[in-house]
Amino acid sequence: MGIIQDMFSGSPFGPLVEHTKKVHECVEMVRPLMEALAHENYLEIDNLQDNVSKLEYEADLLKQEIRSRLPRRFFLPVDKSELDNFLRCQDKIADRVQDFAIILTLRKTKLHPDLIDGFFQLVDQIFQVTGSLLTAAVELDNLAEVSFGGAEARVVLELIDGLGEEEWKADRMARRLSKKLYSLEGKMDPISIIFHEKILLALGSIANEAENAGDMLRMMLVK
Amino acid sequence: MDLMVISFAALLGLYMAWNIGANDVANSMADAVGSKALSIKNAVILAGICEFAGAVLVGSHVTNTVRKGIVDPMVIAKIPGLLQGEAAAIIVVGMTAALLSAAFWLHFSSATGMPVSTTHSIVGAVAGFGIVAAGIDSVNWAKMGQIVASWFISPIAGGIMGYVFFKLIIKFILGQEKPVKAAVSFVPFIVFIVSATVILATVYKGLKHVTGNLEWLTDNVTMIFALMASLFFAVISKLWVKKVLKGKSSLSIARQLEEVEKVFTPLVIISSCSVAFAHGANDVANSVGPLAAVVHILQHGTIEMKVGVPFWILALGGGGIVIGLATYGHRVMKTVGTKITEITPSRGVAADVAATITVLVCTRMSLPISTTHTLVGAIMGIGLARGLGGVNREVTRKIFSSWLITVPAAAVLSMILFAAGRFLFLEKLRLLIIGG
Known about the structure:
Chain A is an all-alpha fold.
């Protein structure tokens, strides 16, 4: 009864797009976290971290939901393992955001005034990277609509093509910021420097995972 | 007394038709209801009209196959040592038993949620009775082989057509730089194909049942008429699509795709109707085939081969399907309609068109096939063309296993019922047939 309907139920693409949106919500917490740090509002950091942790957990649930569906399907339009790889990378973005949030809660650190602008530029650049990836990933529903080909697939691929360059820019910014940080040696206490460095690395890895996810998405599309 | 037996058989035929309506029809309209193109009430009404039309206009071919193609009445008539009228009585009892067992089996599997083919049930049941009545050889194995082969060929043919048709939609509309513009020029072709198929199937020999023999209605006239009418519909659809999509070609591709999908929504209504029509045409035979055999024998007292299926019997079958639809199909559609569907109208249209063409061609060739399985095959074809978010493996497995169970289950049930019926009623019926 209604077997035609039952055959389709449980397509992975709906939840996959949900997962993308969830990860995006996570990434959107990065800037408020940075602002809270700049304003030395440590209570706010704790709150935001709770929030990130919740979002990351929800993303995890979605990931498991999608994974449980994959083995039970025939005729998936994309390779199962490639889809899984992409999902894992996308999920890691949320993980890295959580790492970043946790680092901020570890120590009541004051951002060095000379570095604040640089940090915000870096955050914006990272948002640029994750933004273009997630904009591309949200199109997965529409891509399924055109069976992963044609003009729509080209548009999505163009979105991802920009990713590498944006990530490279973010990398360069992080490097410059790192140099600047070490040039302040002597004017800052060493623990603060370590802490700043940790934040830099955490931010960098968010962009890095986004780039990886972009590569996986491309693998999935180009056949 | 004659009338009583006929009424009883008619009642059974109605019960079987009711089962078909309740069981299958949700599938023919599933795409339209699932993609929210139609309300449940309207779907039931439309499906009713189309099923009835298909049953009455095109239903007779397959009916003849079920009636006399599987178990040859002449073989039963030639069984040595039969009393006068006994062969006729055997067929009456046997066809009634087949009808009853197929209907029981369907009712049982509907209740337990098993996806079972009405066609497979009745073919299995008729063959079962034949084996008990006159041994293995009474079954026309050549015809039976053809029928069973068609059960494999029709989903495959549906699959291939679904694949090709969907690829065409992707290539010419959805994958284009400007899907909206492409839709304006390509959608009329789809409309043309759908209407040409349905009109050809209806007019070509179909109308005879209603109007009698029309001298002027030659094959050429039919062909020209069908093509002209289809052309007319195609032009109308072009104007309509143009109007709906006006000024939408400057949107982003993703937005354009959504707009084009909206154009497919009314198309999926039409294509679902054509599936319902094809379903009525092919599956009405499952209920009225045996009934026609019983009625014919009781009215004429002889076993003859060359007699058409009376109009009232087809109408009865069509009516039964509609009643099943209205009483039970309603409920089925409700569950279908409230479920989240992941089939978009463009897929629905592709699957429907592929299934309609396959089923109508098989109907023309007098082959009883499963409409549902053909539709499933068409959907698989679309899946193969990367058109779906995958297909649920468990459900697919369930469908295939029910393929294997249905024929033997219906056959065994029919054997038992026939043996019981022969023991209880055969002599009375024989006397009745000689007397009348």
